[in-house]
Amino acid sequence: MMFADLVDIDDFRQRLGELGIDLPASGSPESWARQIRAAQPVDGLPELIGKLCAEGVTLQPEVREAIEMILKP
Hints:
There is one protein chain. The protein is built from 4 helices and 2 strands, in the order βαααβα. By secondary structure, the chain is mostly helical. It has one domain (5-71). The protein has a two-stranded parallel sheet with strand order 1-2. The longest helix is centred in the C-terminal third of the chain and has 11 residues, at 61-71. The N and C termini lie far apart (39 Å).
């Protein structure tokens, strides 16, 4: 039986921290997206987002919302 990876906000914050972006635990998806966009360019961010959006990965709504806002032009 296969289980999908579940990425919650703590996982998201940890993975971004590994890229050098420290997000406050009390932030909102909007504030995280603003902070990430302001830090651009971030080495490894496109690859991370690609992995998070891959088939078989389940994102909690807050994570999905933040990623959508990061990707907006």
